[in-house]
Amino acid sequence: MTALPQLLISTVLLGGIYALIAVGLTLIFGIMRVVNFAHGEFLMLGMYLAFWSFTWWGVDPYFILVVAVPLFFAIGLGVYALVMRGSSTPATTSRSSPPSASPPRCRTWPSCSGRATSAS
Questions:
Q1: Residue 47 burial class via C-beta count within 10 angstroms: exposed 0-12, middle 13-18, buried 19 and up
Q2: What is the signed CA dihedral for 97, 98, 100, 106, rounded to 10 degrees?
Q3: 11-20 residue pLDDT tens
Q4: What DSSP letter does each residue of 18-33 carry, written as one string?
Q5: CA 77 to chain centre
Q6: Which of 42, 53, 89, 116 would give a disulfide with 59, using CB separation of 3.0 to 4.6 Å?
Q7: Integer Cα distance of 40 and 30 in angstroms
């Protein structure tokens, strides 16, 4: 009976990790318009670093968190500089242009249609 609460807690924690991965991918795609599949790979490498350092040397995984974040930030920056910088271009969408600060030129519909109206 003690395995059920442990299973529930492990499931919630694993779901939280999946949610963090999804939020990171959504944030990167929403801002840069580039699908960055390396995001999950670096997370996996960080988890393997924590697991194997705990297994081999008995190092606390929370300490490895302090070591792994700057380490994989530097590795990710190097990968970006070598791979992504040359292949990614800024997205050109209608949302990227700022809205005009000037008031609209046409206030009535018939005069905005592009046809000349006769004043009678």
A1: middle
A2: 50
A3: 999 999 889 8
A4: HHHHHHHHHHHHHHH-
A5: 15
A6: 53
A7: 16
Q: Which residue has the tokens 């040359």?
A: 86
Owner of token pair 């991918």:
25
Domain assignment of residue 83, given as a range: 37-87
Examine residue 1 and state whether it is found in any structural domain, yes or no. no
Domain count across the chain: 1
Retrieve residue 33's tokens. 């318009």
Both tokens of residue 56?
A: 């081999």
74 in any annotated domain:
yes
- Quick one: which H or E segment has residue 14? helix 3-32
Q: How confident is the model at residue 98 (pLDDT cuts 50, 70, 90)?
A: low
41 falls within a domain? yes
Sign of CA dihedral 35, 38, 41, 43: negative
Q: Which of the 8 DSSP states describes residue 95?
A: G
Q: What is residue 54's predicted lDDT score, i.e. its pLDDT?
A: 94
Has residue 81 been placed in a domain? Answer: yes
CA proximity to 72, closest of 35, 42, 41: 42
